Structure formats: structure tokens, C-alpha cells
Amino acid sequence: MCDTMYPDLISMGSFTLHTYGLCIALGALLGILYVSRGARREGMNQQQFLDLAFYLLIAAIIGSRVFYIILNPGYYLKHPLESLMIWRGGLVFYGGFLFAFPTCYLYLKKHGIPFFKTCDILAPGLALGEFLGRIGCFFAGCCYGRPTDLPWGVTFTHPNSLAKLDVSLHPTQLYSSAAALLMFIFLVSFRRFKRADGQIVFLYILLYALGRLIIENFRGDERGLLVAGYLTLTQTIAIVLIPLSLGMIIYLGKKNKDAASAAHG
């Protein structure tokens, strides 16, 4: 059972430190530190990476919040001021990705920085940041799961929690957090097998889409528009991304191999 302190870590008078906001901030910091280290390892400009990380963070927060509101229009039409209260939970990854991707592309193009090489450095940091961010979702109660009688089901009791109260639920937030940590480990391990720039970021997209396709089946929160009557919008996007990212991993590897053969030919 979730203790009543979880949504609000510290509350003193009018000041409240929300656990969700703290986890998001720590996740962003951890991801940025890892990316900075990766830039140094690859002999790239660390300051440019830090600037890029700042712009990506802003774009991702805006995009993920916009998509969350789109998926939950009824609530925010009744409570419009809460649209800005991101510290209470409610961010959608694909929305953040949709806003962050063009931001990343334009910044890198402006500064003449290799796109795929940079994305390969960013991807593990993104997974690492999501690991902590999803724990914040658990504390806030957003992205909650369906009712379950499994022994690891969790029951939220705090009145400020975004989850259904007093019902044992799948801890889908922790499923996603564990998946992100496994992705980080796998991506870092894959570096030694990388054959071309871009393969790590597309591997991240592939693994993320697979994880969401599975975990969505255990989600109990409002999922918005259903495609074909039973697939959530997130699952539909995942179904598109899985073959696309797998194809790009193979294509980039083959392209690099052909280029190497031609150079030695």
C-alpha cells in the first residue's frame, strides 16, 4: 500500500515539494550528466551538448504536457489552470519526443554537429532520465494500472494522488521505470557492437516502442482515442515505430558496411 506521504515529499505552510517534480528534475540532471560524459568521451564539445540538453528538456516538457492534455480533454476543460501544473504529474513521452526531435535537428544543423552521432550519445541519457521520471509517476499516481489481485499490486490512499484510490492496481509506473533501466543497460552494452552512427538511437526507439506496446495492456488510466476499437494511440504509434526502427538499424549497418567495402575496394 502506498503511504500517504508519497505525492508530497515536503509540505510546510504554503510550500509543497512534490515528489513527481523532484524525480523529474533528478532524472533530467542524471541524464544530462551522462550525456555530458558521453560527449567528452567522443571528443565533442560538452558545452554545446549542455545547451542542447537544456533546449530539449524545455521542448520535451511542453510537448509531453500538450499531448497529455489532448488525451484528457474533459478534465482540463473543467480545470484549465491545472494545465500548467506539471509538477503534479501528467506527461506523455511521444508528445515530448515529437517536440524535441525538430528542436534537436535544428540545433545540430545550425552548429554543424553530426546528427546521428549526437543522437546515439543522447539516447542512453534519455533512458536513464526516464528511469527516475517514471518513479515520480508512481509517487504522483499518474499513469496508473488496472485493478489486480497480484501480490505486487499497489493501493493508493492519498487524496491528492492521481490514481484510483483504495483499489489494488498494477504498478505500471514501476514497470516502465524498470524497462527504462534495462534499456539504459542494453544501450550502453550495445556500444561495442555498434556498426554505424544512428543504430543506438533507433535501438532505443525500438526497445521503447516494444515496452510501451506491452505495458499499455496493464494501464488503467484514461487512454484517449482508441484505434480500431481496442488499440490505444500509444500502441498504434509503437506498432509503426517497431518495424521502422528495426529497418533503420539494419539499413544503417549495411550502408556503413558497403561504404567501408567501397573504400577498401
Description of the molecule:
Strands 1-2 form a two-stranded antiparallel sheet. A two-stranded antiparallel ribbon has the order 3-4. The protein has a two-stranded antiparallel sheet with strand order 5-6. It has 265 residues and is mainly alpha-helical. α5 (115-140) runs parallel beside α7, α6 (172-190) packs antiparallel against α7 (199-215) and α7 (199-215) packs antiparallel against α8. The relative contact order is 0.12. The protein has helices at residues 19-41, 46-71, 73-78, 93-111, 115-140, 172-190, 199-215, 233-264; strands spanning 8-12, 15-18, 154-155, 168-169, 226-227, 231-232. The chain is built from 8 helices and 6 strands; from the N terminus they run ββαααααββααββα. The protein is globular, with a radius of gyration of 20 Å. The protein starts with 7 loop residues before the first strand and ends with a helix. The model has no long low-confidence stretch (mean pLDDT 85).
Oligomer: single chain
Number of strand elements: 6
C-alpha Rg (nearest Å): 20 Å
DSSP summary: helix tally: 8
* Terminal-residue CA separation: 65 Å
What portion of residues is helical?
55-70%
Structural class: mainly alpha
**Helix and strand element order:** EEHHHHHEEHHEEH
Widest sheet: strand order?
Answer: 1-2
Largest sheet descriptor: 2 strands, antiparallel
Task: Using the alpha-carbon principal axes, give the shape.
Answer: globular
Q: Flag low-confidence runs.
A: none
Average residue pLDDT: 85
In terms of DSSP E residues, the strand content is: 5-15%
